[in-house]
Amino acid sequence: MTVWDDLVGQQQTIETLDRAARDPGSMTHAWLLTGPPGSGRSTAARAFAAALNCPDHGCGECRECLTSLDGTHADVTVVATEGLSIRVEDARELVVEAAHRPSVGRYRVVIVEDADRLTERAADALLKALEEPSERTVWVLCAPSHEDVIITIRSRSRHVRLRTPPPKAVADLLVRRDGVDPAMAMYAARAAQSHIGLARRLARDDDARRRRREVVQMSGRIRSVPDAIGAAADLASIATEESGASSSERDAAERSRLLETLGADPAARTQPPHVRAQIATLEKEQKTRATRFARDVTDRALIDLLSVYRDALVVRLGAHVDLVNEDARAEVDTLARAMSADELLAAMTAIGEARTRIEANVPLLLALEAMAISLRLPRR
Ligand SMILES: [Zn+2]
């Protein structure tokens, strides 16, 4: 067993990080780990932190390893923002923390999971620390791609790229680690397009599978403008359903914890001004988090939808490539018959545009409606 076991399909990355952890001479103090969502960036970063602090360079069993992996190691800081950006105040705090010597381990490791969400000022605040880090501090910044990170940060860090793991490797991991049935694991790995976290959820959660199925079936049903408007509304409500389910309980818990910290009476009808101000700040953060979550969920739904058109194109062109939606062969075949290769490509472009617009803050429903109208099946 080693700390690298859960990092599937990333042999090259493992070799690079493992070598660095074993040989302090080749050590770099600032790393940039990039890879598509779900490829295991965060897993790689934590495994690296473990390997750096483990006396055996990542045995996967000692205290140093286990606490580094689960994020409780005293010298490993993991920053995972749920907001839309990492603010300059947060970055400054990190810099202070990173300057301390490690307390129990060999290295202090600061992992920033969404380095693409650093604001420009926050990135500036990190620069000096990245350039002249303390001897025993290692920064590990994670982002989807090299280009997502501000250039001044890129140029000061060593880049390691994770790849999309093959579906078979993801399926094997689900079977080995989570005890998922092999056939289900293979379906989930394909349907999630090798996104490990999503594959795991699809394999274990009936609702997630049902929602995905609804999205896949949507493709063949859009014939008219009213159909399109309806499909856009359905997509938006799938996103709201999913984000609502996960956030309301948590929001309430955060609120009562805050009131407790401030010594306020949760049952009081009106709160004193300083408490109200804190509540307002919390509510603002929760709203930002909900926005990001709804966007992320919608984006996943759009990737699912995109995969159906991609599969139809594969079928249409007679290419010998595995389908993402082997389980929805009927829908895929229907689309492949109803649309020409050019029309399928245009549909894929429309979905891509909707994703870009949503990322750029265009109201969700508007972006989805515009897309769905372009997805109408041609009349023949
Ligand atoms: Zn160990």
Task: Describe this structure in a few short sentences.
With 380 residues, the chain is α/β, with parallel strands linked by helices. The protein has helices at residues 11-22, 41-53, 63-70, 88-99, 120-131, 151-154, 167-178, 182-191, 196-204, 206-218, 225-261, 273-317, 329-338, 341-359, 364-374; strands at 30-34, 76-79, 108-112, 137-143, 158-161.
Description:
With 380 residues, the protein is an alpha/beta fold. 60% of the residues lie in helices and 7% in strands. It is built from 15 helices and five strands. The protein has helices at residues 11-22, 41-53, 63-70, 88-99, 120-131, 151-154, 167-178, 182-191, 196-204, 206-218, 225-261, 273-317, 329-338, 341-359, 364-374; strands spanning 30-34, 76-79, 108-112, 137-143, 158-161. A five-stranded parallel sheet has the order 2-3-4-1-5, with helices on both faces. The model has no long low-confidence stretch (mean pLDDT 91). The structure holds zinc ion. Zinc ion binds at residues 54, 56, 58-59, 61-62, 64-65.
